[in-house]
Design brief:
The complex is a heterotrimer of chains A (about 120), B (about 600) and C (about 600). In chain A, about 40% of the residues lie in helices and about 15% in strands. The N and C termini of chain A lie far apart (about 55 Å). Helices cover about 35% and strands about 15% of the residues of chain C. In chain C, a hairpin with a 5-residue loop joins strand 6 and strand 7. Classes of the chains: A alpha+beta (about 120), B alpha/beta (about 600), C alpha/beta (about 600).
Chain lengths: ~120, ~600, ~600
């Protein structure tokens, strides 16, 4: 189908998110989900999916959702770490799908750490 | 909607393809499927990443893990460990400085990429070249839209002129000026051509661009068509580039489907279409008039200029011809403004240049650097230096039309003017590094053999002169030359340069002239001392057994294919030089360093 | 036309704005050497012999293709240009088999002359002494020896551009480049028409006609043979060039004297059978005009054209006149009428024709060219050049010869027969006769100037006793092709067409004296030679074929009337369609 300029722009916006993942921008906020056997057993996979989905849906720029191996506190899995340049790492524990969406909304969008989900609260 | 959480980028450039990257893709799909991950992990075949020495290359995002020299049997481990469990497979990570940084560092922070500035290669290795939407995601076709809706043809040409973009095919003619000449011609039929007949030995930037980002060429040619008033374009690409041809054809089809090629593009009334023409691989068809003859269906041979193609080109119509890399810069310039481009590089050489690193260098591959980056930075930092602890001797730029830059000039900035000043040329961007083991006369001979082979045979100086030149250099390397032969060689070089019909002949003697300029002593050693200082020229070599080191193990005698080595067991052996064919097998076999060549 | 002023070696000259440096220099009296360049045929700037210094250019430029510009300063003889030409010559000579003494083109070789002019004493490159002949002699008319080829490509250009055939071209590349047919097939496997134009443009001895003089010498030495010779119309106006006489000199009398001194038993004029052709072809034309069948009638005098038609336009074979060419009619008449008249066994008659043409060597071997079954009409066809060679061998001082007349039996011809030698001549000769036959009235003006001249295609309309007759004349096979395409498409309609294979007609035939580019680039050979032909016609009392007493006698005593059964048996022939790719099996 022939595309107009508006349609061209629409494709660009839609596809930008996809391409975003491949940018090597170290200024990105990195959301890292523990995806070792323990994490997966505790339900990390839907959590990861929820993060990816929520970030895409909100068209957040400069956010990378990544996975990592075992973070080391298996009993608190699924664990998600959020790295923001120039800030201290925040570690969320026992994350589920709903919490994941909340973290995106509050932490990433509104810049408010949800203290009760963090590892500090769990201890 | 499926949520894709990870992208696996597998290089589908020619280099990685020939080391089996298609099989790797197949394995990835199989392994992901097996684990039910096909929906959340996307495997993408991209263009070249540049680090061809380490292919096949796989990058897994979002982590950005750069796996090198991946084999199909490694795929299961990557999927199981990295993708499923999030544990990076360290043994496959790129051996360079990345490994120490333990993955987290961005690829852009490695020495190989750090000094690069990727404009032409901006999408190579980043997008799926067979997916127009990914090109669009990275601002693809925005430049065409902008040009067609917001700019007059004059403004487009002024923009290109202001950017300072010069032809990347070798000669460095200002692109804007070329377009302006053609735009000035009053003719309803004009053509836009793309020279993808890359032929320099060791150069493959155009191939990589077409393989990795074909849409940027299509977009640029449409822009050029608008600027000069042409409605048809041809990409002349050599048939030896099957992947490039295929991706280009896919891209053209997609662009037509989206209406970015064809009639009434973006509803502006502008028509432009593109066709691919395959060349049979003649080096001379990179010369513009020969290329056009070839597109017309004739024997690819240059013709005298004037008239220049801008006035009378393809099918006798006004035509512009630009190189692939030149076009690749055009959309970027339109999108980012001429000032952004002109701010990179040197006073007269703006922007970046892609070089193909080859020869005695650690990181063979493709790099894009700002004009004016020094040769030293390219070789030592980006290229990782000369391997095996050998000493850098010279760098050859510009391929068979270029020259050698000796170690003493390693701080030469890589731009059109500086390279010309040291007797070489930018050329299309081949950069071949030579170490102490290279004989410069032999190198010159290598390039001569190439140009003698590739001369079209139309004009006398190139057809006969180049052959005679090769005979003279051959005489020198075989130890039969005289000082007079060196003089005659030089005289013939200048004759061929000044009298040949086209650029091929006019530059073909450069490898000889530049080595004569910088390494004349090596030539003299060949004719006066009858010696090849680098130990390359066979006729001048003599293999010898050092009696004090030889223990008489007889292994050299056994490996010698012509029975030139004799001696009693446990006593020093000797080589009969009249029988020796200088194959070097004995030297390789000797464990005691008792055999030397001189 | 606008002009510009340039300075050649400091001398100001005014020249056309579209002139080349070469042409501007010529206007200043300077001849820049050239090898590959040939006016109207080849301008490719390839040999680099003409390199010259001009202001505003980066290095040396090829004068043959470089355009002049207002105020340009041209230095034709700078040391730089001189040295460059010398080195290029040296390079060419390093790859040229230099057997000058035994070469066909000795002393008529452009390369040899340049080597002399540029004082080349030593060739420092290559091993030319090791070069071996590279002979391709598959065709009857031509021998190619690529060891002498300098790749000027004049032959390629004339074959492709002028003749529209293009059966030769460069193969391989670089040093291995050589001129040959596609896939290095032999010429006989292509649709070469044997016109020989390639030979006349070759600067060296790489292309020569197949020499048949030995055969003629042998016949002359054979006492049992009655050797008759006939000369084609155009030979008399070109032969003189071989003896340093000006282009366009009519040497008919000296030619006859020379032939007699060579020992021919009878020296005859093929013009006579040209007249005979007009009677037969004119009759054929009137028959077709009446019946309306197979129009336009197309002439068949030019064997190059006939072969071209058979290969490329077989659909026009029915349009070809069934008349043999004058050469073949001459041979046929010798072995029938003349043999009978003289009481000689036709087997003992040896017919030699002197032709401007290499295709005539092929024509004599065609099928249906034996008036006496088992005997070829013509036994040897030699070119103007070969005749000159024989005259030289015999030590005949050509210029000093007296003018002599042809032997009478076939020695009286009309001006109509003479003008066969120039393009349009056959048409004009036919029109003179046909018009008078149809109208029954004597023509007031014999010149049909509309069909004269060197243009490639000429058209005219004449009133033939109330019937409008449309005629066209083409010379050069590219022009023939263009004309036939127009006829095929219905764009043009004619009643009669004359086609000559060679541009300008027989005066510029492939067997004519070879003039170097230094002459051809500045003298119109076609026009000058043709002018001599028309002058000869004008001087003649007898100017119409049907008034030739010899012809009248032939019909009265032997052939009965034009187009008779006997005439058909002796003077007419048949044609055959030929493949465009004779060497390959192609499903057509």
């Amino acid at each position: 189908m022939k595309k107009s300029i508006e349609e061209l722009n629409a494709i660009r916006e839609r596809m930008k998110q996809t391409i975003q993942m491949r940018s090597d921008n170290s200024n990105n906020v990195r959301v890292v989900v523990g995806m070792a056997t323990c994490g997966i057993a505790a339900g990390a996979r839907p959590v990861l999916a929820a993060f990816v989905d929520e970030v895409n849906r909100r068209q957040l720029k400069n956010v990378t959702v990544a996975q990592t191996g075992c973070i080391g506190v298996c009993r608190l899995e699924p664990i998600v770490e959020i790295y923001e340049p120039g800030k201290e790492k925040v570690t969320y524990v026992k994350v589920d799908e709903n919490k994941a969406r909340m973290i995106v909304a509050e932490h990433l969008v509104n810049q408010r750490v949800i203290e009760e989900y963090t590892i500090g609260a769990a201890k | 909607m499926n949520i894709v959480r990870s992208h696996v980028l597998v290089c589908g450039g020619t280099g990685c393809t020939s080391s089996n990257s298609p099989e790797i893709i197949k394995q990835f799909n199989k392994e992901l499927d097996k684990r039910g991950l096909s929906d959340e992990v996307k495997v993408i075949q991209t263009g070249c990443f540049g680090l061809c020495a380490l292919g096949p290359i796989v990058i897994v995002y979002p982590e950005g893990s750069f796996y090198s020299m991946v084999k199909p049997e490694d795929v299961e481990e990557i999927v199981e460990e990295h993708i499923l469990k999030g544990r990076i497979v360290k043994r496959l990570l790129y051996e360079g400085d990345l490994k120490e940084a333990k993955v987290a560092t961005s690829l852009n922070d490695t020495n190989f990429y750090k000094k690069q500035k990727r404009i032409a290669l901006r999408n190579c290795g980043v997008i799926d070249p067979e997916n127009i939407d990914e090109y669009i995601a990275n601002d693809g076709y925005q430049a065409l839209a902008k040009v067609l809706t917001q700019m007059t043809p004059e403004e487009v040409i002024d923009t290109i002129t202001a950017s300072g973009l010069r032809g990347r095919g070798g000669a460095g003619f200002p692109t804007g000026r070329k377009w302006a000449f053609a735009a000035k011609e009053d003719n309803p039929v004009k053509y836009v051509c793309c020279n993808a007949d890359e032929g320099d030995p060791g150069a493959f930037m155009d191939r990589s661009l077409l393989e990795g980002d074909p849409h940027s060429i299509i977009e640029a040619m449409a822009i050029a068509g608008y600027a000069i008033g042409a409605h048809q374009g041809y990409v002349y690409v050599r048939a030896e580039y099957p992947i490039a041809v295929k991706r280009l054809q896919i891209a053209i089809r997609q662009a037509r489907e989206y209406g970015f090629l064809g009639e009434d593009i973006f509803g502006t009334g502008f028509n432009f279409d593109l066709d691919v023409r395959l060349g049979a691989g003649a080096f001379v068809c990179g010369e513009e008039t020969a290329l056009m003859r070839s597109i017309e269906g004739h024997r690819g041979e240059p013709r005298p200029r004037p008239p220049f193609p801008a006035v009378k080109g393809l099918f006798d119509k006004p035509t512009i011809l630009n190189n692939v890399e030149t076009y690749a810069n055009v959309p970027w310039i339109i999108n980012n403004g001429p000032e952004a481009f002109a701010s990179i590089g040197t006073e007269k050489s703006k922007g970046t240049k892609v070089f193909a690193l080859g020869g005695k260098i650690t990181n063979t591959g493709l790099v894009e650097i700002p004009m004016g980056t020094t040769l030293r930075e390219v070789i030592e930092e980006i290229g990782g230096g000369v391997p095996n602890g050998k000493k850098f001797k010279a760098a050859q730029t510009g391929g068979p039309s270029g020259g050698c830059i000796p170690e003493s000039l390693i701080d030469t900035p890589m731009d059109f003017e500086s390279l010309a000043a040291v007797g070489s040329i930018m050329g299309s961007g081949g950069l071949i590094v030579m170490d102490e083991d290279n004989c410069m006369v032999d190198i010159a001979k290598f390039f001569l053999q190439f140009t003698v082979d590739e001369s079209c045979g139309k004009c006398t100086p190139c057809r006969i002169g180049m052959r005679r030149l090769l005979e003279l250099v051959d005489k020198i390397t075989s130890g039969n030359g005289t000082l007079e032969d060196i003089e005659l060689t030089e005289q013939l070089c200048y004759h061929i340069k000044e009298n040949s019909l086209c650029g091929l002949g006019q530059t073909a003697p450069n490898p000889v002239l530049s080595t004569l300029q910088h390494f004349r002593d090596e030539y003299i050693a060949h004719v006066v001392d009858k010696r090849c200082p680098a130990g390359v020229c066979k006729n001048l070599l003599r293999y010898q057994i050092l009696a004090e080191k030889c223990i008489g193990c007889t292994s050299c005698a056994r490996v010698c294919p012509v029975g030139a080595i004799s001696g009693e067991v446990k006593k020093p052996h000797t080589i009969d030089t009249s029988k020796c064919i200088k194959c070097g097998a004995c030297m390789e076999k000797c464990k005691f360093g008792a055999i030397v060549k001189n | 036309m606008s002009t510009v002023k340039v300075k050649v070696n400091g001398v100001e000259v005014e020249c056309p704005a579209n002139a080349t440096v070469l042409e501007a220099a010529r206007l200043a009296g300077i001849e820049i050497p050239t090898l590959c360049y040939m006016k109207e045929i080849n301008a490719i700037g390839a040999c680099r012999i003409c390199v010259t210094e001009v202001s505003g250019a980066r290095g040396l430029v090829a004068a043959c293709v470089y355009p002049v510009a207002e105020g340009m300063e041209i230095n034709t003889n700078s040391q730089k240009a001189y040295n460059a030409r010398k080195m290029t010559l040296e390079l060419i000579l390093s790859n040229h088999r230099r057997d000058c003494l035994t070469c066909d083109r000795n002393q008529n070789c452009e390369l040899q002359k340049l080597a002399k002019d540029y004082n080349i004493k030593d060739v420092r490159f290559g091993h030319p002494e090791e070069l071996k002949p590279q002979i391709e002699d598959s065709m009857i008319h031509l021998i190619r020896d690529n060891s002498k080829c300098i790749l000027c490509r004049r032959c390629v250009a004339v074959c492709k551009e002028m003749q529209g055939i293009g059966v030769i071209g460069p193969n391989d590349r670089g040093f291995e480049t050589h001129i040959s047919c596609a896939f290095d097939r032999n010429l006989e496997e292509t649709a070469c028409v044997s016109c020989g134009q390639c030979i006349t443009v070759c600067p060296t001895g790489a292309l020569t006609e197949r020499d048949c003089t030995d055969k003629v010498w042998n016949a002359l030495a054979d006492k049992s043979k009655f050797v008759v010779v006939g000369t084609a119309p155009s030979v008399r106006v070109t032969l003189g060039e071989c003896f340093d006489m000006p282009v366009g000199t009519n040497v008919q009398g000296k030619m006859v004297a020379a032939l007699r001194r060579l020992g021919f038993d009878k020296v005859f004029d093929v013009d006579v059978t040209a007249d005979l052709t007009i009677l037969e072809e004119g009759t054929e034309f009137l028959e077709r005009l009446n019946s309306g069948e197979n129009l336009p009638l197309i002439t068949s005098c030019s064997p190059g054209w006939v072969k071209f038609c058979e290969h490329y336009y077989p659909e026009f074979i029915p349009n070809l006149s069934s008349c043999k060419s004058p050469q073949q009619m001459f041979g046929a008449m010798m072995k029938t009428y003349y043999a009978e008249k003289m009481g000689i066994d036709p087997k003992d008659i040896f017919v030699v024709s002197i032709m401007p043409c290499t295709a005539k060597k092929f024509e004599r071997f065609r099928d249906y060219q034996e008036a006496v079954p088992g005997l070829r009409d013509v036994d040897a066809a030699i070119t103007t050049r070969e005749l000159a060679r024989m005259i030289a061998t015999a030590g005949i001082s050509f210029k000093d010869l007296p003018d002599e007349d042809f032997d009478p039996a076939f020695g009286i011809s009309s001006g109509a027969g003479v003008i066969f030698g120039a393009t349009g001549g056959v048409m004009e000769a036919a029109l003179r006769t046909v018009t008078e036959i149809v109208t029954g009235q004597e023509l007031k003006k014999l010149e049909f100037t509309e069909v004269r001249g060197t243009e490639g295609i000429k058209e005219a309309q004449y009133d033939l006793g109330g019937r409008l007759v449309r005629v066209a004349v083409a010379s050069g096979l590219s022009n023939a092709r263009a004309l036939l395409e127009r006829v095929k498409s219905g764009e043009a309609q004619y009643d009669m067409i004359e086609i000559m294979a060679c541009p300008g007609g027989c005066v510029n035939g492939g067997g004519q004296p070879i003039q170097p580019q230094s002459v051809r680039n500045f003298v119109d050979l076609r026009a000058k030679r043709a002018a001599a032909i028309y002058d000869a016609d004008k001087e003649m009392k007898l100017r119409k074929s049907h008034e030739n007493p010899v012809i009248k006698e032939i019909y009265d005593t032997y052939l009965e009337k034009p187009g008779s059964h006997k005439a058909h048996k002796i003077l007419h022939t048949k044609y055959q369609a030929r493949s465009k790719y004779p060497g390959v099996a192609v499903a057509e």
